[in-house]
Design brief:
Length: 270
C-alpha cells in the first residue's frame, strides 16, 4: 500500500465504500494539517486532496459517517496543546462540500462519536484543559447531512470519561470501548501552548447502551488497556474487531507502548 502523502498524528480516518478519508492531524507538534487525503482501494492510489473549513479543528476530532456524509465534531484547533473548539461540521463526500452544524454545548478533545438511531451521539472526551475527563453525553437528530434540531440534547452520561476510545453502533446497541483518562496539557505561561506531559491512565473498559437508553451496561473489558482506537475498529461477522492502539506507558522510561494485537469481541455472546 502506498505511503500516505503526509505524516499524521491524532488525525481521523473513515472508510466509505472503496474510498478511505484521512482528516487533518498533526504533521509535527508545531504543524497541523487542514486538509483531507483520499485513498482509493480499487486502484491502490491516493486519489484526491481537499481543504477543511478554516475554523474546523485540526486534531482530536470526533468523526462518524452514515455512508455518504462525514460528521466532524469538536477537537483541538491549532498545534501543540492549544484549546479545543466546539464547532461541528459535516462533509458531503459526493460533492466535497462542507456545512456547519450546531456547535457542541462545550468543547471536547477526541470525544467518542457515533451515529445511532437517527442521532449523532458525542460522549466523553477531555474537557477544556485537555486533561480532565468529560462524562457528558449529547446527541442531535440528523438526516442527510442536516441537523433536524437547533440544539444538542443531554443524554445519560458515560460511566467513565476521557478521549481516544472506540464507539460502535450495532442495531439497537451502542458500545464505547477503551480510552484513557488524562492527556498532555499546555505548559503554564507558554506563548505557544507547548505540550507538557501529565499523568495518564489507559483503560480497557467496555460499556453498552441499549435501545431504551436508560443505563450503560458494563461488559467484559479488553484483554489489556487500550487507547487511541477511535479509528481502529470494524464490525465483521457480528464481531467487533479492534486493531492496535496504545497501552500503559513503560514503567521506567515512561515512553508510549504500542499495541500489536488484534482483539475480537463476539456479539453473539451477549
Amino acid at each position: 500500500m502506498p505511503s500516505a502523502p503526509v505524516p499524521r498524528l491524532d488525525g481521523s480516518a473513515i472508510q466509505i465504500n472503496n474510498l478511505f478519508y484521512v482528516l487533518s492531524g498533526y504533521g509535527t507538534l508545531d504543524h497541523v494539517h487542514s486538509h483531507v487525503d483520499v485513498f482509493n482501494f480499487t486502484d491502490n492510489t491516493w486519489c484526491a486532496k481537499f481543504d477543511t473549513p478554516k475554523d474546523m479543528a485540526n486534531s482530536h476530532l470526533g468523526v462518524a459517517s452514515d455512508g455518504r456524509y462525514i460528521y466532524v465534531v469538536s477537537g483541538q484547533y491549532g498545534p501543540q496543546c492549544r484549546a479545543p473548539t466546539s464547532r461541528t461540521y459535516v462533509l458531503d463526500t459526493q460533492t466535497r462540500e462542507w456545512q456547519s452544524l450546531p456547535p457542541l454545548p462545550a468543547p471536547r478533545y477526541a470525544p467518542a462519536t457515533q451515529l445511532w438511531k437517527g442521532r449523532l451521539h458525542v460522549m466523553g472526551g477531555s474537557k477544556e484543559n485537555r486533561h480532565t475527563p468529560g462524562l457528558e453525553h449529547w446527541s442531535i437528530a440528523v438526516k442527510d447531512g442536516k441537523a433536524l434540531e437547533k440544539e444538542w440534547r443531554t443524554e445519560i452520561p458515560v460511566p467513565r470519561g476521557g478521549p481516544h476510545r472506540a464507539s460502535v453502533a450495532i442495531k439497537d446497541r451502542l458500545f464505547v470501548i477503551g480510552g484513557q483518562e488524562g492527556d498532555f496539557m499546555a505548559k503554564p505561561g507558554s506563548p505557544i501552548f507547548k505540550c507538557s506531559r501529565r499523568h495518564e491512565v489507559v483503560y480497557g473498559d467496555v460499556y453498552m447502551l441499549d435501545a431504551e437508553m436508560k443505563k450503560w451496561e458494563v461488559l467484559p473489558p479488553l484483554p489489556k488497556p487500550n487507547s487511541h482506537i477511535e479509528c481502529s475498529w470494524v464490525v465483521v461477522n457480528n464481531s467487533i474487531i479492534i486493531t492496535g492502539g496504545t497501552t500503559e506507558k513503560h514503567p521506567e522510561t515512561k515512553r508510549m507502548i504500542l499495541v500489536g494485537e488484534v482483539f475480537q469481541f463476539h456479539l453473539d455472546s451477549l
